[in-house]
Design a protein that fits this description.
3 domains
Length: 254
């Protein structure tokens, strides 16, 4: 019985979500009323209020469903995406936005856009924050500002870029957008994560190790690979042997 009820709830919520989406595409979010939604879904107003307190809450549920659909295609906002190394992963972000082009265009206009944008921003920033925390644990990076600040900054940058791209009628391809986003954000990401300082320290330590190694090699006597005797000792022995040989030749001549 409980399972049947769960299915019924899921079906009702889906009808309401689909009705809202259809009406948004037809009329725009601000023009849609709860009565319009229930009429479109062929449900009563009382049924609507059993599931959502108002139209904005239903919209947030729609956004959650859209993000769930995206995350089912890309199981998680991966470390490589956050590090801006996975170009294909970045392309998927823009490809998903392009697939929902009409909806995004409508949502960014009017009060519905504010609600949807906040929800999207929160979901993306939480994913990025997790990636930042993982990177700090893995690499010992020392972010110059708190992780939640960085996460919110990059989530806002990503959404602003997507909105600009959609509002401009997709002037660049998905592939071009991914490359441009990667190039413009990579240096800033490394600086905010303190990775540029970390790399400088590693480079400095590496150079110090090389100098120490060279100094040690200079201070140590060179070895002959055949006899493993110090070269200086070899020279002394050779000189002594030459002297003895010369004295013997002189005695023979006399």
């Amino acid at each position: 019985m409980a399972r049947r009820l769960d299915r019924r709830v899921q079906r009702t919520r889906k009808l309401l979500r689909d009705a809202l989406l259809a009406l948004i595409l037809e009329e725009g979010y601000d023009a849609v009323s709860i009565q319009d939604i229930t009429d479109k879904a062929n449900l009563g107003r009382a049924t609507f209020y059993l599931h959502f307190k108002d139209k904005d809450e239903l919209l947030m549920d729609v956004v959650d469903q859209l993000m769930g659909e995206f995350l089912s295609q890309v199981p998680q906002f991966s470390q490589d995406q956050w590090r801006l190394e996975d170009l294909k992963g970045i392309e998927k972000l823009f490809d998903f936005a392009a697939d929902h082009y009409d909806l995004y265009r409508i949502l960014i206009i009017g009060s519905g856009g504010i609600t949807a944008s906040r929800q999207l921003h929160h979901i993306i920033s939480e994913k990025i924050k997790t990636c930042i925390e993982n990177e700090v644990a893995e690499t010992g990076a020392q972010p110059v500002v708190p992780p939640d600040f960085i996460a919110n900054h990059f989530a806002g940058s990503l959404l602003a870029t997507i909105y600009w791209w959609l509002d401009a009628d997709l002037p660049y391809s998905v592939e071009e957008m991914a490359v441009n986003f990667q190039n413009i954000n990579r240096l800033e990401r490394d600086a905010l994560m303190g990775l540029d300082k970390l790399m400088d320290e590693q480079k400095t330590n590496s150079e110090k190790d090389k100098r120490k190694k060279r100094a040690k090699e200079k201070s140590s006597p060179k070895k002959d690979p055949k006899t493993t005797k110090p070269v200086e000792e070899e020279s002394i022995v050779d000189t002594a042997e030459e002297s003895v040989s010369e004295e013997m030749e002189q005695e023979v001549q006399e």
